[in-house]
Amino acid sequence: MAPPSCLLRVGWLPAALCALALALALAPASDATSASLVGINYGRVGSNLPPPQAVLPLLEGLGIGRVRLYDADPAVLHAFAKTGVELFVGVPDQSLAGLADPGGADSWLRSNVMPFLPDTKIAALTVGNEVLTGNNSALTRALLPAMQSLHGALAKLGLDKQISVTTAHNLGVLGTSYPPSSGAFRRDLLPYICPILDYHARTGSPFLVNAYPYFAYSGDPKGIHLEYALLEAGYAGVPDPNSGLRYPNLLVAQVDAVYHAIAAANTAAARVVEVRISETGWPSSGDPGETAATPQNAARYNSNAMRLVAEGKGTPLKPTVAMRAYVFALFNENLKPGLASERNYGLFKPDGTPVYELSYKLPRDNSTFGGAGNSGWRFPGGGGGNVSGGYDNNGVNSGYYDISAASPDSAGPCRWSQAAVAGAMAVLVVAA
Question: What's the catalysed reaction (predicted)?
Answer without folding.
Answer: Hydrolysis of (1->3)-beta-D-glucosidic linkages in (1->3)-beta-D-glucans
